[in-house]
Amino acid sequence: MNTITRAQLAEAIYAQVGLSRNESAALLEDVLERVSAALEAGRPVKISAFGTFSVRQKGMRVGRNPKTGVEVPIMPRRVLSFRPSQVLKGRLNGETVADDED
Fold this sequence. Notes:
With 102 residues, the protein is α+β, with helices and mostly antiparallel strands.
C-alpha cells in the first residue's frame, strides 16, 4: 500500500505552483486546517471533481462482542463520510467523464 504523505503533497505543490518549499507546506497546512475546521463545525466540504466529505451523527445502538456474545452498548458518535464525485468514479473505472460538476 502506498500512502501519500503531507510532505509529498507539499513537494507536489512546490513543483507545480512554484512557491517555495516552506510556502508550499504552509499552504497545504492551511487548506487541511480549513477543511478540518469546517468538518468539526458540522459543515460538509465539497471538492469539485473529487467528492464531498460530511459528518453525520450515529445514534446509540447495541453491539455484540463476537468472542463472548455479550451485548455491549455503543455510544452515539459523529462519523466522517466521503462520497466520491461522478468524475472521480469515472477516473477510477477508466472512463472519461466531463468535469462539469459544481
